[in-house]
Design goal:
The chain is mainly beta and 115 residues long. The chain is built from no helices and 10 strands.
Length: 115
């Protein structure tokens, strides 16, 4: 079993920044491509960003490109999401999982951006 624990969310004004963390524990492997996803109220969970196991290749949803940066520290089994220039439409619960998600979802971390 792998447990995913997201943290770092909060309330921030438009234009502000937050850094999210996701720690994986249990039977983990550093070879997984990992991703961040988000779900706003009344919508389906959507892809935000992904990173290969080496960190060499990253991909972003068009809506966050140029504002968000995904990174990872394999020694710590941790994936990060640096979010800059936040907008109200970024308000959602943020989750991490494998890029092709098949792990049990964590509780997520709430990000609220006020205008």
């Amino acid at each position: 079993q792998v447990q995913l624990v997201e943290s770092g969310g909060g309330l921030v004004q438009s234009g502000g920044s937050l850094r999210l963390s996701c720690v994986a524990s249990g039977r983990t492997t550093t070879y997984w491509p990992m991703g961040w996803f988000r779900q706003a109220p009344g919508t389906e969970r959507e892809f935000v960003a992904s990173i290969t196991w080496s960190g060499a290749i990253t991909n972003y949803a068009d809506s966050v490109k140029g504002r968000f940066t995904i990174s990872r520290d394999n020694a710590k089994n941790t994936v990060y999401l640096q979010m800059n220039s936040l907008k109200p439409e970024d308000t959602a619960v943020y989750y991490c999982n494998k890029r092709e998600p098949d792990l049990l979802w964590g509780q997520g971390t709430q990000v609220t951006v006020s205008s």
